[in-house]
Amino acid sequence: MLRPMIFPSGFVTSRLRLRPIAAGDAEAIFAAYARDAEVTRYLTWRPHASLHETEAFVAASIDGPAHRTYVLTDPDGGSAFGAFDLRAPAAGHLSFGYVLARAHWGQGLMTEALTPVVRWALARPGIWRIGAVADIDNIASARVMQKAGLVREGILRRWLVHPSLSAAPRDCVSYAAVRD
Length: 180
Ligand SMILES: CC(C)(COP(=O)(O)OP(=O)(O)OC[C@H]1O[C@@H](n2cnc3c(N)ncnc32)[C@H](O)[C@@H]1OP(=O)(O)O)[C@@H](O)C(=O)NCCC(=O)NCCS
What we know:
globular; Aminopeptidase
């Protein structure tokens, strides 16, 4: 059984606010990225065909004992254009996943979101590691982790199914930052 974990109520950077996802975010998420096959190419889920699917997805994303999903908005609030999922899969260890609407790619935004999360994690007593994996071909995600200070650890063979690409699990690259 995983230990309950206290996640921050949010993060704020110069261009972003991360706040916990809520049922009311479904419409913006569907419109901004959940139906975009380009966005979901390297994800574990397929593009949503309807708002109803996004509503169910958001409902399932709301806080559990071992994870919190944040949405990304402008610093002053407004509609969600991305999401950041922070997870505690084991004692002392955090992992994460993220997604951003295509209109916002290439501006350094996810690096800006990840960087304070990593800083928070490694300053928190009892957290020794924060890391994630990306599909072997997901160069942008690998670059985000590298820019946020995570170190490439190696390749996990046949690690995750990314259904837009293959029904078989694909090789993934693992990145992490650890406390010395
Ligand atoms: C991955 C993702 C979150 C990146 O967000 P972002 O805000 O655009 O990322 P950043 O702008 O901070 O950095 C992206 C980096 O990747 C680089 N990059 C992007 N596509 C690339 C490509 N095909 N080849 C080489 N570099 C690439 C960019 O040049 C940039 O690096 P730089 O700053 O050195 O130029 C975004 O592309 C996304 O949402 N993708 C779909 C969902 C996804 O794959 N999530 C991750 C699952 S592990």
